[in-house]
Amino acid sequence: MKYFVKLLLAILVLCLVTQLGYAQCNLGLITIEQCDMENVDFDTDGSPDGIINLYQKSGVTPQAGDEWESTGMESASFALDNISGEVRLWKLRNASDQYFFTLKNNSCVSGERVVVQLFLGPYAGIPATTGFFSCL
């Protein structure tokens, strides 16, 4: 009987440790809407810079081994810092709802922690074309 109880306790502890190790994986899809990219001031120095941080906007906590990747139909890899999660919005050429960023980490069974969809509204000088996201 004691052996059985010890075995059950060991299995329970193993399950809990495994669950804690993967607690931040497979968080699903998080959407971010950014309509006022002209006024975004990431470094809060009073001068707009058009930079957002995907960790901050999505509420996901950074973990060792994280790497962001642009995975949408609209490529944004040239505007993305894949380690810090910073996106330079002013480098993106279209207002669109097709910007997707996947946070990958090898400690996750699926390899993915979260997918972030960025809804980017139109900005000065470049109107949103038909079929693209526009802020109302």
Structure write-up:
The chain is an alpha+beta fold. It is built from 2 helices and 6 strands; from the N terminus they run αββαββββ. It has helices at 2-21, 54-58; strands spanning 29-34, 51-53, 67-70, 86-88, 96-104, 112-120. Strands 1-6-5-3 form a 4-stranded mixed beta sheet. Strand 5 and strand 6 form a beta hairpin. It starts with a helix and ends in a 16-residue tail after the last strand. The model is unreliable at 17-23 and 127-131 (pLDDT under 50).
Major beta-sheet overview: 4 strands, mixed
Tell me, rounded to a whole number, the average pLDDT: 82
What is the spatial order of strands in the main beta sheet?
A: 1-6-5-3
Radius of gyration: 20 Å
Low-confidence stretches are 17-23, 127-131
Order of helices and strands: HEEHEEEE
Anisotropy-based shape: elongated
Portion of residues within helices: 10-25%
* Structural class by sheet pairing and helices: alpha+beta
Question: Total number of β-strand segments?
Answer: 6
Percent strand: 25-35%
Number of helical elements: 2
Distance separating the two termini: 66 Å
